[in-house]
TrEMBL record:
<dbReference type="InterPro" id="IPR045186">
    <property type="entry name" value="Indole-3-glycerol_P_synth"/>
</dbReference>
<dbReference type="InterPro" id="IPR011060">
    <property type="entry name" value="RibuloseP-bd_barrel"/>
</dbReference>
<comment type="pathway">
    <text>Amino-acid biosynthesis; L-tryptophan biosynthesis; L-tryptophan from chorismate: step 4/5.</text>
</comment>
<dbReference type="InterPro" id="IPR013785">
    <property type="entry name" value="Aldolase_TIM"/>
</dbReference>
<keyword id="KW-0028">Amino-acid biosynthesis</keyword>
<keyword id="KW-0456">Lyase</keyword>
<comment type="similarity">
    <text>Belongs to the TrpC family.</text>
</comment>
<dbReference type="InterPro" id="IPR013798">
    <property type="entry name" value="Indole-3-glycerol_P_synth_dom"/>
</dbReference>
<dbReference type="InterPro" id="IPR001468">
    <property type="entry name" value="Indole-3-GlycerolPSynthase_CS"/>
</dbReference>
<dbReference type="GO" id="GO:0004640">
    <property type="term" value="F:phosphoribosylanthranilate isomerase activity"/>
</dbReference>
<keyword id="KW-0057">Aromatic amino acid biosynthesis</keyword>
<keyword id="KW-0210">Decarboxylase</keyword>
<protein>
    <recommendedName>
        <fullName>Indole-3-glycerol phosphate synthase</fullName>
        <ecNumber>4.1.1.48</ecNumber>
    </recommendedName>
</protein>
<keyword id="KW-0822">Tryptophan biosynthesis</keyword>
<feature type="domain" description="Indole-3-glycerol phosphate synthase">
    <location>
        <begin position="5"/>
        <end position="257"/>
    </location>
</feature>
<dbReference type="GO" id="GO:0004425">
    <property type="term" value="F:indole-3-glycerol-phosphate synthase activity"/>
</dbReference>
<dbReference type="Pfam" id="PF00218">
    <property type="entry name" value="IGPS"/>
</dbReference>
């Protein structure tokens, strides 16, 4: 049976193909050249040396939760997350399933100094050009969505373009593939993109296979300082947080509270 992930990938491929036929490549190249990527992995490492490195996600909606935040202003969200101490931003750019946009990435990226991730389903190198043109410093590559030859192609193209890669896995087999392919920044998604089940235990279990030179990011379902403490103890140094902050009336204050909180309280 086709999963939600299959559906998203098919839709993404069709839309990318359509954009490729009408794109103004010269303009995209010019915009990409005008954005000097800020090191995403280096930024996370520097932050993680001092405190839990939080990647704050600018996320309006999701297929599993529907609309998450109606009062949605990516530029001010970006600023408030930076001020509150986020190490980096993640901006959803998938329109059909997450109500995201490359424009949101663009306005968020110019508003801050911290590095920004283009959060989307990357299936074609054209999306890397779009990413850098819109101010991305890193892209996401989802192991469950790509073959090893595609992962290799997109990894090499990202390196050529100066973009860092956050490689996302969900189980032991995918983690092995990511390590085998040489990814040094690996995100373990607690949410299975095929079923939307969230399994924090699996995230903790997978940390034991972390190679020494790899920075691991815990992703999804993180809502409290206790969650961060648990994942930190397992070996995670960075944490991707979306919904829990986006649902707060003041997401910046909520992030500051999360970072200040040494007690295992819910935010
Ligand atoms: O909103 P949450 O539960 O804090 O999750 C954030 C992030 O991990 C999630 O948005 C995500 C992780 N991997 C993805 C891949 C595509 C789209 C979205 C995602």
């Amino acid at each position: 049976m086709a999963t939600k992930l299959d559906e998203i990938l098919a839709d993404t491929r069709a839309k990318v193909d359509a954009r490729k036929t009408t794109a103004d490549y010269a303009a995209l190249e010019r915009r990409a050249a005008a954005h000097m990527p800020r090191g995403f992995a280096a930024g996370l490492r520097a932050a993680a040396a001092k405190r839990p490195a939080i990647i704050s996600e600018i996320k309006k909606a999701s297929p599993s939760k529907g609309l998450i935040r109606g009062d949605f202003h990516p530029e001010s969200l970006a600023r408030m997350f930076e001020t509150a101490g986020a190490a980096a931003l993640s901006v959803l750019t998938n329109e059909a399933f997450f109500q995201g946009s490359l424009e949101y990435l663009e306005v968020a990226s110019v508003a801050v100094k911290i590095p920004c991730l283009r959060k989307d389903f990357m299936v074609d190198r054209f999306q890397l050009l779009e990413a850098r043109a819109s101010g991305a410093d890193a892209i996401l590559l989802i192991v469950a969505a790509l073959t090893d030859p595609m992962l290799t192609e997109l990894r090499d193209e990202a390196a050529r373009m100066g973009l860092d890669v956050l490689c996302e896995v969900h189980d032991r087999q995918e983690l092995e593939r990511a390590v085998q392919l040489g990814f040094k920044l690996i995100g373990v998604n607690s949410r299975d993109l095929r079923t939307f089940t969230v399994s924090p235990e699996l995230v903790i279990e997978l940390a034991q296979w972390k190679p020494a030179d790899t920075l691991m990011v815990a992703e999804s379902g993180i809502g409290s300082a206790a969650d961060i403490a648990r994942y930190s103890a397992a070996g995670y140094e960075a944490f991707l947080v979306g919904e829990a902050l986006m649902r707060q009336p003041d997401p910046g204050a909520a992030l500051a509270a999360l970072l200040a909180c040494e007690c295992p309280a819910e935010i």
